[in-house]
Amino acid sequence: MYKFGIVVFPGSNCDHDCYHAIKHVLAQDCEFLWHHETDLEGFDCIVLPGGFSYGDYLRTGSIASLSPIMKSVEKYALAGNPVIGICNGFQVLVESGLLPGALIKNSSLKFVCKWVHVRVESNKNLFTANTKVGDVLEIPIAHGDGNYFCTPGELKGLRENSQIVFRYCNENGDITSESNPNGSIENIAGIINKAGNVLGMMPHPERCAEEMLNGTQGKLIFESIISWLNLNKKVTGRA
Amino acid sequence: MKEFKVKVEVKLKPVVLDPQGKTVLTALHHLGYDNVEDARIGKLIELRIMGSDAGNVKELVDDMCKKLLSNPVIEDFVVKVEE
User: Is the minimum CB–CB distance between A106 and chain B shorter than 8 Å?
Assistant: First the structure.
């Protein structure tokens, strides 16, 4: 059993969904970490959950990225430990500089809340190791600022290092502009850092991790993390 | 030490799409202002800062812009210091 830490910022609202998925569906140990916490000793994976931290003031994720816990999360990530940011968590990760690019307002200007399809673009990382490249996952999104943007140079880097993990697609796995819900560059729905241990994604895997919620494919991501921990936990030093 | 009034304009870089500006542009056209070619929306941040001279204050605010007030990936900023 591994210990997951879920960071709670003022305005986080998917923290309990993540807790439920990890603790009750995946039967792992799980604790909430208030954003003033700085000690991440003993945690095997840190989750930055979705929500509207600090009311999305200034820019989504910008204020939360300066919370006391984020310095520790940065150290924890640099030591090679797994960090996953979902939705607002992804926004916090780009604002903190742990992931490249930015998330701006949806091109439709609308808050989009629906089930979407994403195609796995890379499985050579600890978050999608239990999937195959080309797999189409059905996962819900719910955001107003999920439009991924980066410079041409950053995009080139993302492509060359297989850092694009998920792209929005239709149910057949085709990457089309109709299947892009927010205007993201190249339909990007999720990326990892260069080292491969920090994932940011707009879709919510915790909302589709059990039959009762009409979808279980989100579980694949948490299971991939657990598989990786099974193999690497003794090897990697903890922050 | 004296008080300086600082205005920070934060705007999206020209290469970044501004859907809000586009929507406002369309609305202006609906009002009959057909000669409006473009509309882009930014933010204005006003600060009151105690400092010794305008140069120091500007330097400080430039730093704030890089760290928090703007996101260098998508935004440009202009700092104006008034006594």
Answer: yes
Closest CA to A5 of A69, A54, A58: A69
Total domains in the fold of chain B: 1
CATH 3.30.200.20 corresponds to the domain A3-232? no
Q: Is A110 helix (H, G, I), strand (E, B) or coil?
A: coil
Question: What residue ranges do the domains of chain A occupy?
Answer: 3-232
A71 in contact with B at a CB cutoff of 8 Å?
no
Contact A59 B71 (CB under 8 A): yes
CATH at residue B38: 3.30.1280.10
Q: Which of A87, A150, A169, A208 is catalytic?
A: A87
Residue with tokens 């003022």, as numbered in its chain: A10
Residue A34: strand pairing partners: A8
Q: Which domain holds residue B57?
A: 2-82
Do A125 and A196 contact (CB within 8 A), yes or no?
yes
Our answer to whether residue A204 is catalytic in this structure is yes
The interface pTM score, or ipTM, of the predicted complex is: 0.85
Q: pLDDT tens, A56-66?
A: 999 999 999 99
Q: Which residue positions in chain A have pLDDT lower than 70? A: 234-239
> pLDDT tens-digit profile of B49-65?
999 999 999 999 999 99
Q: For residue B17, what pLDDT is reported?
A: 87
Cross-chain residue pair A109–B68, CB shorter than 8 Å: no
Where is average pLDDT lowest: A102-106, B13-17, B25-29? B13-17
